[in-house]
Amino acid sequence: EPEVTQTPSHQVTQMGQEVILRCVPISNHLYFYWYRQILGQKVEFLVSFYNNEISEKSEIFDDQFSVERPDGSNFTLKIRSTKLEDSAMYFCASRWDRVLTQPQHFGDGTRLSIL
Amino acid sequence: DAKTTQPNSMESNEEEPVHLPCNHSTISGTDYIHWYRQLPSQGPEYVIHGLTSNVNNRMASLAIAEDRKSSTLILHRATLRDAAVYYCILRDVGYGGSQGNLIFGKGTKLSVKP
């Protein structure tokens, strides 16, 4: 069964540094998402992306965050200047169709640790 | 999005059925009921969804109350692999507008005893 893959599985970065988290969504999917989960807390929506532009974003997704689909397969989340509170699991998800009943398929996440 | 209420935790014995409840008293007529689960150290995983009628798939069954103010996810024979946090999420069906981001609550943590 097709999967969403995320790399790396664990990223350790110094505070203030830039970090790029990478995702390869399922190949024929059209809608892409990033979520994060701080240890012990709820999964939180960050941003949705469709047709090469951001569709929705949460309050968490401030100017330090950006997303890009640089080619036909990758979907990236960049944090420009990381803060300690950015430490979390980051999940990428994709969905096939604009029909909202279609399920989202999640990757297994990247654990981001900010030192 | 309408709010859902789930118990914080439940326990089950292996190979027994599990009924996971969800209350959604403010559900609107166009809200679908979705269930996802999150196994330890993994991303959320789609389980099942429905609107009004009960639904079955290879993973589970979804029983929806006639007034749609509550629903129950049924695992027919729990296995150790079913130990996870189960999330009940309402999504308004529609074309355009919101692009379908999911709003997760705290869910129900299911423990399965051998």
Structural write-up:
The complex is a heterodimer of chains A (115) and B (114). Chain A is mainly β and 115 residues long. Helices cover 0% and strands 50% of the residues of chain A. Chain A has no helices and eleven strands. Chain B starts with 8 loop residues before the first strand and ends with a strand. Chains A and B meet through strand 4, strand 5, strand 9 and strand 10 of A and strand 3, strand 4 and strand 8 of B.
Describe the structure concisely for a colleague.
The complex is a heterodimer of chains A (115) and B (114). Chain A has 115 residues and is mainly β.
Strand % of chain B is: over 45%
**Which geometry of chain A do the CA atoms define?**
globular
Instruction: Report the end-to-end length of chain B measured between terminal Cα atoms.
Output: 38 Å
Count of individual helical segments of chain A: 0
Number of strands of chain B: 9
* Gyration radius of chain B, in Å: 14 Å
Number of strands of chain A: 11
Show unreliable segments of chain B: none
The helix content of chain A is under 10%
| Unreliable parts of chain A | none
The percent of residues in helical segments of chain B reads: under 10%
- Discrete helix count of chain B: 0
Q: Strand count, sense and closure of the main sheet of chain A?
A: 7 strands, mixed
